[in-house]
Amino acid sequence: MSRRVVVTGMGAITPVGLNVAEFFQALKEGRHGFGTISKFDSTDYKCHIAAEVKGFEGKDYMDFKAAKRMELFSQYAVAAAKEALLDAKLNMEEEDPYRIGCAVGSGIGSLQAMEREYDKLANRGPSKINPLMVPLMISNMAAGNVSIQFGLKGKSINVVTACATGTHSIGEAFRSIQYGEADVFVAGGTESAITPLGIGGFCALTALSGVDDPDRCSLPFDKNRSGFVMGEGSGIVILEELEHAKKRGAHIYAEVLGYGSTSDAYHITSPAEDGMGAANAMLFALRDGGVAPEELTYINAHGTGTHHNDLFETRAIKKAFGEHASKLHVNSTKSMVGHLLGAAGAVEFVACVKQMEAGFIHKTVGYETPDEEMDLDYCRESYEEEIPYVLSNSLGFGGHNASILIGRYKE
C-alpha cells in the first residue's frame, strides 16, 4: 500500500531572492532577475544577458573551509537545503538518519571546474591539475555535499535528465517515500552554468535569446520569443511521509499527489512535435493522483521561451486536456528567473506550493503578443483564486518529460 507524501519545508536560492520569501515576493511583484552577464566578458558572444544569483556568499551558509571544497552548484544546494530543513524544523538528533534520503540533481555539475582545470592542463601541463577536480566537478556532488553537511544517511541519488532534473528528483523522492524506502527526503535541483563554455555552448545551439533588453529577453509563449535566458540557483523541498510529519507536529504546506514521466524517443534537443510525450506525462501524473483532468485549473509550464518548446508544450496541453485546455491558467516562472536547467523544476515546484498557499497565480512577465496556434490563457495578468491542484511540467533535452501533481493538503 502506498503512503501519502507531504511537503513540510522549502528553500530557494534564485536570481530574484536568496530565500523562499524573497523569491515569492518577486513573483507576486512580477519582478525579473535579468541583466548583463557579470561573471565573464560576453562581448564576443551572441548572448549578453543572464539571470545571475546576486549577493550570494557560500560562507554565509556553511563553514568557510567546507565552502572552499565545493563548487558553486553544490554551495547553492547546501544553502537551499539548510533553509528547507530549518523551515521543516526537522531535528536530526531525533531522527533515524538512515530513513532520511537525499535526491538533489544537477544537469551539468561544475563547468567552472572544468574550464579552470583545462586551462591549467593546456598552459601548464597535467601535473598542475587540482587533485580534487573530479569530486568538485561531477554532478552528484550536490547530493553528496548536502548529505554530508546535514547527516542524511538514507537513499542518496542524483537524477540527471537535463532540464527535467529538478522535477524528476522530487518525483523519485516522492516514489521512494510512497513505497517505504524512506520517511523523509531532501529533494530538488541545483545549477550554476553561467560560464564561457555554458553560454557559448547554448549560443552555438541557437537556444539562447540574443536580445539585449532585460525586459524583453525572456518571453515564454509570446510570438516575439527568441530563446531562453540562462538562470542559476537551487530549489530544495522536504518531502515527508504524512504520519511521520503529523507525529512530530510539522507544518504541512501541500501534498504531492502524482508523478508522471515519459520519453519522447524522438530527438536529442527538440520535443516531439505532436506533444504526445509531454501529454502522457501530464495524464500519468493526474491518474497517479486520482485527479480528473477537468478538476485542474492551473499548470506551471516548462515555458522556456524557445520557439519549439512553447509551441509543442501548448500542443501537449491541448492533447491531454481537450476542450478543458482553454479553461486552464498556464504560466511560466522562467519569464522572471530564466531557465535554471537542472534546478528549474525544483524552483518552480516551490513557486507552485507558494502560489497554492496564497491563492495567487503569477503572470507570465513580458507576455504581450499571441502566436498562431498558441491560444491558451498564458496569464498576461496575475490571478487571485483558490488553487486546489497544480501540475508542474519539465521537459529536458533527450526527450525527458516529467510532470508532478501537487494538491492542497486535506486530512
Report on the architecture of this protein:
This protein has 411 residues and is of the alpha/beta class. It contains 13 helices and 14 strands. It has helices spanning 20-29, 64-68, 72-88, 111-124, 133-137, 141-150, 165-178, 196-204, 242-247, 276-289, 307-321, 334-337, 344-358; strands spanning 5-13, 35-36, 49-50, 100-105, 156-157, 184-191, 233-241, 254-263, 298-300, 329-331, 360-361, 383-384, 389-396, 400-407. The strands form 3 sheets. It has a 10-stranded mixed β-sheet, with helices on both faces. Strand 9 (298-300), helix 11 (307-321) and strand 10 form a beta-alpha-beta unit. Helix 3 packs across helix 6 (141-150), helix 7 (165-178) crosses helix 13 and helix 10 (276-289) packs across helix 11. The chain is globular and about 65 Å long. 58% of the residues are buried. The model has no long low-confidence stretch (mean pLDDT 97).
Keywords for this structure?
ten-stranded mixed sheet, alpha/beta, single chain, two-stranded antiparallel sheet, 411 residues
Brief overview:
The chain is of the alpha/beta class.
- Tertiary shape: globular
Task: Compute the number of strand runs.
Answer: 14
- What is the percentage of strand-forming residues? 15-25%
Q: How many helical stretches?
A: 13
Instruction: Report the helical percentage.
Output: 25-40%
Spatial arrangement of strands, main beta sheet: 5-4-6-7-1-8-14-13-9-10
SS content category: alpha/beta
Determine the mean pLDDT.
97
| SSE series | EHEEHHEHHHEHEHEHEHEHEHHEEEE
Radius of gyration: 20 Å
Main sheet makeup: 10 strands, mixed
Low-confidence segments: none
Give the terminus-to-terminus CA distance.
18 Å
